[in-house]
Design a protein that fits this description.
Blueprint (H helix, E strand, L loop, with lengths): L1 E5 L3 H13 L3 E6 L2 H11 L3 E5 L9 H12 L5 E5 L4 H8 L6 E5 L6 H12 L3 E3 L1 H10 L10 H11 L4 H8 L3 H15 L9 H11 L2
Parallel strand pairs: 1-2, 1-3, 3-4, 4-5, 5-6
Helix pairs in contact: 2-3, 7-9, 8-9
Length: 214
């Protein structure tokens, strides 16, 4: 898998390069400032881009803007955005296009190597990876609505579903059968008035996120 990295922190940038290369991936290019990102992506057309949200010179949303511009120029380009904090607006803007191959993780997730690599591969294959803390904040923001009717198990399934996990991964995380997960998902979609699940794709993640962000 060919990867382009955009990160202004030299230590984290080199750490990402080492992690990815030691995991068998190729780092096609690295960027340390916002203006470098788009030309680098257009030149290398990687399998996935890993971009910091806030980059020089302004340290505002240069990485996100570059990600959105790159996905316009290269439709379907998988992008995994990293951020220091939970910034729901950035997550919503990145996911709002309706296409797969997008992710939003907090930087401390990089230290959890297996989780980070799993999220990266999921995004590269056209899936979605949303940080659990973002999901938690979106859930906490919703009050006095059908979420209150969910059982604890159903709420747990909803959180894992919104992160982009498939049924098998959810089943292993909850230590239940896939059949039980499928049943819980059906109950969640019915109680929230969402269209029936297609079993595990990006479409159901978008449906859940649209509901949580309403």
């Amino acid at each position: 898998m060919r990867v382009v990295i955009a990160e202004d922190n030299a230590l984290l940038r080199e750490g990402l390069v080492l992690l990815l290369t030691s995991s068998g991936h190729e780092v096609a290019g690295v960027a340390a400032t916002g203006p470098e990102i788009l030309p680098l992506l257009l030149e290398h057309r990687p399998d996935v881009a890993v971009l910091d949200v806030r980059m020089p010179p302004g340290f505002r949303d240069e990485g996100l803007r570059a990600a959105l511009a790159a996905r316009e120029a290269l439709p379907g380009l998988p992008v995994l955005v990293l951020s220091q904090y939970v910034e729901e607006t950035y997550a919503a803007e990145l996911l709002g296009g309706g296409a797969g191959g997008v992710g939003y993780l907090l930087k401390d997730r990089v230290g959890r190597v297996d989780e980070f690599l799993d999220a990266l591969e999921r995004v590269a294959s056209g899936g979605t990876a949303l940080d659990p803390e973002v999901v938690t904040e979106l859930l906490a923001r919703r009050r006095d609505d059908p979420l209150d009717s969910l059982t604890p198990r159903e709420r747990e399934v909803l959180e894992l579903m919104a992160q982009g996990l498939d049924n098998g991964t959810i089943a292993r995380s909850m230590v239940v059968t896939e059949r039980a997960v499928h049943k819980h998902i059906g109950n969640v979609f019915a109680k929230l008035g969402l269209p029936p699940s297609d079993g595990g794709g990006h479409r159901r993640v978008l449906a859940v996120l649209a509901y949580l962000d309403a």
